[in-house]
Amino acid sequence: MISRKIKFLFCFFIFVMGLFGKEVEEKVVKIAMGYNGRSYDPHKHTDSATLAITKQIYNNLFYLGENGKIEPELVKSYKIKENGDIEIDLKENIHFHDGKELTAEVVKRSLERNIEIPITKVLAEPIKEIVLIDKYRLIIKSKYNPKIILNNLTHSSLAIVKEDRNGKLVGTGAFELKEWKNGEKVILSKNKDYFKGEPKVDILEFITIPEAANRYIALETGEIQIAYDLASIDVNGIKNKKDLNLISKLSYGTDFLSINTEKAPLNNKEIRKAIKYALNKEAINQVVFENTAEVANSILTPNTYGYFENKDDSIKTIEEAKNIIKSYKEPISIELWIYEDSSKYQMAQVIQANLKEIGINVEIQTLELSTFLQLSAQGGHNALIGLWYTSTGDADYGLYPLLHNNSRGAVGNRSFYNNEEVNRLLDEARVTLSSEKRLEKYKRVQEIVEDENPIIPLVYKMYHIGLNNNIKNFKFNPNGNHILEKIEFN
């Protein structure tokens, strides 16, 4: 009798555990990207692939809400004082993934770490000093217009980080790092104690699938649930799929041609003008993006503060461009660098054909992304196709890194452009408190660039994101670091 009871209880226990196991089955959402995340350290990288992942691990003091409005994230309240100082009161009882509490002192250390790292120094450089008031309050003293700092603090590379006892970075985000396989596969697990509420999914798995067509197939077959950066050719395909949803929205990014102004004959302003006259941006939009992008007339996107729509009323023809090149009297051959990306290669082919028509021979060189970034920072190129996100939503981050002489090289100015008036205007805009006067200075900068062409904007980047129909509450962000803390997968 006792033996039968034991057997019955054992079988009942196994049955209950089986039911319980089904109830706690993990909800896993797989997201495919075109590039590897380079590191889980957001302070050392500003590329979109890295920050798309790290945004889930770390929080910022502020974030950009709808229509570019600055919203508090780790901040309870703040005020800008008459002298331009920003007084910040942090939310209380927010904890890092190692259990330690977020304090003003930790925030101070995190932001000061940014200042010491070259790649993000341009974002943190406007900070003059950080003064602690008490455990949860601090003052950020500004060198410039405090609005610049507030916008910069929304950039995911200024996320608040802390080192745990093993020297590993931890954040306060909705998900914490579980596994990082050279960036090709990154697994994040939910933070049950997240201050905004426990996430509805257990695991986020970021997978690198370089080819956009393969990302689409993986989405279609259910291998993944979210696909970033789909090709334009797949947009219509998704529209016709009942089990898939599509997001197509304008980003803060601009694809552009950057010309090395230190390399002859490209140091000749007239040669650069001829290149601009020859470029057929409409063809790039049509051939490469199937008219799903927008032709760009400024390095700043229309949703960025400081954007000015340059309109060249004069009609410049291919014949005028040919005449400029003929007057040079020497054959012109240039290398055009791109990184591994199908759309960049197609854009390069259109540019190659455009410039051949006016007598410039173009050789396309395709480099692996990290090599592309390293060598172009050293100025080894004649020209390159770049992509820049004004992720802060403010013109300072869109113009200063790309055009100011202080930003030459790795910071962003890979055209090695140096114009004294542009330098002066960008410096003045930083310390100008009047919004109207700041806009005037940014307008003038864009007019000069339109004339001198160290960089030639091509198209504004549209985000094409495919989602499984069972994914809910995906929050789009025009800077590419989409917020996944509230998504559901049923």
Written description of the protein model:
The chain is of the alpha+beta class. It has three domains: 103 residues, Dipeptide-binding Protein, Domain 1 (Dipeptide-binding Protein, domain 1, Alpha-Beta Complex); 92 residues, Periplasmic binding protein-like II (D-Maltodextrin-Binding Protein, domain 2, 3-Layer(aba) Sandwich); 210 residues, Roll (Dipeptide-binding Protein, domain 3), CATH 3.10.105.10. It is built from 15 helices and 21 strands. Strands 1, 10, 11, 12, 13, 14, 15, 16, 17, 18 and 19 form an eleven-stranded mixed β-sheet that branches. Strands 4-5-7-6 form a four-stranded antiparallel β-sheet, covered by helices on one side. A hairpin with a 5-residue loop joins strand 4 and strand 5. The longest helix has 22 residues. The relative contact order is 0.15.
Could you give the topology of this structure?
Blueprint: H1 2-23, E1 28-33, H2 48-57, E2 62-64, E3 70-72, E4 75-80, E5 86-90, H3 104-116, H4 118-124, E6 127-132, E7 137-142, H5 146-152, E8 162-163, E9 169-170, E10 175-181, E11 185-190, E12 203-208, H6 212-221, E13 226-227, H7 235-239, E14 244-259, H8 269-278, H9 281-289, E15 294-295, H10 318-328, E16 332-339, H11 342-357, E17 360-367, H12 369-377, E18 383-389, H13 395-403, H14 420-431, H15 435-452, E19 455-468, E20 471-472, E21 488-489
Helix pairs in contact: 3-4, 8-10, 9-11, 13-14, 14-15
